[in-house]
Amino acid sequence: MTTNPIVLDLPFRGRWLARNSPARRVPSHGTHALGTTYAIDFIAVDEHGRSAPSNWRSWLAVEPPEAFLGFGLPILAPIAGTVVAAHDGEADHEARRSQLTLVPYVLGQAGRLRAGPNAIAGNHVILALGPSGPYVALVHLRRGSVRAEVGDVVAAGDVLGECGNSGNSTQPHVHVQATDSVDWAGATGLPIAFRFRGAMTQNGETVGVPRESEIVEPPGIAEGRRDGRSGPPLRKFPRIRGTQI
């Protein structure tokens, strides 16, 4: 059965690179586990497509997450909903762009899985779009940045937290996915699409799934205002308490 995708706004401002896109393959992350079937990752980049400056550490060692453009940038609600899960307190790991540093990281994957969903998702927020779902998760947020609380009713564009490197993450990015359940173990991933401006789209703006390695930004961003911190003032969501879903 074909399911229409849930259409979302991009959960950020500025230029971001799409990785592990379901436009390339499904399941996008190589597994259906934890509802990641149609998940996608976004990495903030500069005008040259770089997430951070390169130096000897990029090739041989781990790097501090603070060196990356995306670390600490606001992560926004991509759609209106009710917060049904909000987790903070997980550490932001050192980044690993070097193949040498990825080997021990991969070997530790089994341990992270045994530690439970928070060790994989890190700091995160889950929004319910209705009384029985579906649900949209924003994952790997910066420790100490999560503003949302369970029961908050948010609008698209409200600040939920900041981009981080917590959980199962090798460099600062935001992971977005939709599921039919908030139970990570039993969740089924649902298709998602985005409103975006991308270099690979014929007319510049589209609704769809960004292609692998496509650099995207929200529609309507004028030239000279593409920094992730620019644009109109970010709106903090009001503390409206709805029925917990």
UniProtKB/TrEMBL annotation:
The keyword Hydrolase applies. InterPro entries: Dup_hybrid_motif, M23ase_b-sheet_dom. One of its GO terms (molecular function) is hydrolase activity. Pfam families: Peptidase_M23. Residues 115-178 form the M23ase beta-sheet core domain. Residues 217-245 are annotated as: Disordered. This is Murein DD-endopeptidase MepM/ murein hydrolase activator NlpD. It comes from Agromyces flavus. The lineage of its organism: Bacteria, Bacillati, Actinomycetota, Actinomycetes, Micrococcales.
